[in-house]
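Let us begin with a simple case.
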Amino acid sequence: MSRYVVIGAGAIGGGLGGRLVQHGLEAVLVARGEHAAAMAEHGLRLRSPEEDIVLDVPSASGPDDVRLAPDDVLVLATKAQQAIAALTQWADVPVYRGGTAVGTAGELLPICTALNGVASESMAARYFARVIGVCVWVPAIHLRPGEVMLRSAPRSGMFHLGSYPAGDRDAALLAGIRDDWTKATFKVSLPADVMPWKYRKLIDNVGNCFQALIGRNGDYRPLVAATRAEAREVLTRAGIAFTSDEDEAAARADSFVVHPVPGEPEELGGSSWQSLTRATGSIETDYLNGEIALIARQHGLSAPINAKIASIARVAAATRQRPGGVSADEIRTRLGLA
C-alpha cells in the first residue's frame, strides 16, 4: 500500500487526502499558513452533502516535516501558478530506505499532477522522472482554514490518470492508485493517454474567470461560450487532440452529482472564484486562458478573447478584487464583444 503525500491540501488536495484517511488509507496533507496550523491543531473538517466530520489527518508544512520512503506517491494539488515553487521544493528531498538515503524524490518517486491546465505535466517532467498526469473533475471548495467541502455525493468526483508522456510505464502503480482512490469514493479511469482529457477540461476551464470576476453582476454565459469557442478553435487548428464532447459527457454522467452542502449557499464557485473570494493575490488564469493564448502564438494563430481576459483576471487578483467587482457588460466591452 502506498502512502500519498498530498502537496497543496486545499480544495482538491484536502478533499482527496481527507477521503483517503477516512477510508483507512495512508496520506500526509501538506499545506501552508493558517490552513496547515488549523489541521495540525484541530484536524481537517470535511463537509459534504451527506456528512460533516472532523478527521485526524497527518499534516505537514513542508518537506522538513516528512521523511520520504520508496513506496510514497507524491500528489501535486496546488494551483497551477504555484506548481513550479512546489516542484523545486520537493524534487531534491532525500528518500530513505530504513536509515539510508537511497536517492531523491525526483529520481525515485512518482508525482501525480492533480491540478487544472495542461502545463504541470511538462513542468514536473523537468524535475521528476516519473510523472502521472491527472485530469480532475472534483467539485470542491476551500474557503476557511482547516475546512474543505466536497459538493458531490455519493461519489466525491472523478479522476483520469495516465503516465506522462503516454505509455505503459507504471501500469501496476496506476492500478494501485485507481483501487485506493476508488475506495476513497472517487471514480478513477486509466486512459491510454490522459492529455486529451486534460485539454478537454481546459476548454471548460477557460470559462472559470467570468464567474470569478463577475459573480452575480450580470449574465456572463455568452462570454463563457465565446471564450470556449475560441479555445476549441485554437486547439483544433493547432492539431491538439482533445476528448470528444460525447465521451466527456458520458464519463461525467455516471461519475458524480453535485448537491448543496448543508448550511452553504447553492451557488458556490470554482477554483478561480475561490482565489478571488479568499483574496490570495494570484489566480490560475494564466495557465487556462493564458495557455490558449500561448498555443495560438506558437502556431501563428491568435486568441484575443483568452489573451485579454487572462490579463483582466491577473490584474483583478493582484489588486484583491472580489467576485462581482465588474459587470458582465463591462467585461463584454473590454473584450470587444459588445
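The second case is a distinct protein. As before, the sequence precedes its C-alpha cells.
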Amino acid sequence: MSLQPLQGLLVVSLEHAVAAPYCSSRLAHAGARVIKVERPEGDFARDYDSEVYGESSYFVWINQGKESVALDLRQDADHAQMLALLAQADVFVQNLAPGAAERLGLGSANLRERFPRLITCDITGYGETGPMHDLKAYDLLVQAESGLVSVNGAPGPWGRIGVSICDITAGMNAAQGILEALFLRERTGQGSALHVSLFDSAAELMAVPYLQARYGRAAPQRGGLKHPSIAAYGAFTCSDGHELVLAVQNDREWQTFCQHVLLQPELTSDPRFASSSARGLHRDQIEDLIQAVIGGMTGGQVADRLTEAQTPFGSINSVLDLIHHPQLRTRQVEVRGRKVEMPAPACQASWHDAAHGGRAPGVGEHGDLLGMR
C-alpha cells in the first residue's frame, strides 16, 4: 500500500453543509483521519435530498471515509470531549454561523493559545470584519452578492450557477491553505490560523470581469455560451440539430480553422479578423460565417473536419451524457450496503489508490470508538 501524504494526521472538523465538508474530504482523500463533529440531530446536509438509495447526494459526495461523532457542545461533558479531541488534533476546521465558535469557547485564537501546534481554519460567509461579517451566507446569496450571477448565463431572468461553486471554491482554498500551514509547521513547529470566506473565494473568481469593469471599457454582459472577449467562441448548430461549442483562442488556431473547417483561407488576411482583439470586435460577422458553414453539415461531418484541423471543440452534453462519457473517471463508495459510483477527485496521484473511499458515516457512528458515550 502506498504511503499517503497526510497519513497519521488527525483533522477535527466541526462542519455542516458543503464548504468545510468539502475541505475535510480533500484531506481525507490524502490520507488524514477526519473526525466529523455533528450536532446530535446531524449535519443538515443529510436531509438535502434522498436520491442515493435514500441518502443525500450532497452528503454522500463529500463525507466518505470520515468518522462521525455527535456532540452537543453546550453540554459540559460533550464540550470536554471536544477539547480532548482537539488536544490530539493537527487541524481544526469549522464553518459554524458567525461568532458561534467563539461563543462555544472554540475560537481559533483561544484554541491556538491552548494548543500551539494546532492549525485552525475558520470558514465564514463574508469574512470576520466588515459590515456584513455577521450575516449568514449560503451559496446562492454569495453568487448574487459577488456579481457571479451578473456574468452567468444568457440575457433574461437571472440564473444561479448550477452547482455550489462558492462553497466548493471556499473548500478548495481552505484545503490549500491547510497544506501550506502543515508545511510551515514542519519548519517552525507552530500552528497557524487560517481564515477563508465564501465571498472572498467568489470575488477572486470574478477577477477578470472586475479588472475589465474597473480599468477597461465595461463589465462583460451575460452572453450565454459566448466569451466576453474572444471570437470564434460559442455554440453552433449542425444540420441534424447537434450542437457543438468551439473555442478558437489564438491566431494560429484561427488560421487553421479558416483553411480546414470553413474552407475560406482568405479570411485570415481580412483586417476585421486579423487579430484576437479585432475578431472580438466583429463577433457577429464571425458567428454568421461559422453558422452558415456548420449549419449545412451534420454533427459527424463537422466533428471530423474540426478534428482534422485540431480545432478545439466539444459537445453540449446532458448529465446523462456525462454518466456515459468515455473520459469520466469514477470511484466507488458504499451507501447502505450498495456500491455507488461517483466522479473521482480531479487530482490524480499514486497515493490516491490507497485512499479510504469507504462510505459516509451515520450520525455519531464512531462515538464508541473514541470512548464517548
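The chain has two domains: 10-206+327-370, 233-315. The longest helix spans residues 165-188.
Keep these points in mind for the review questions at the end of the chapter.
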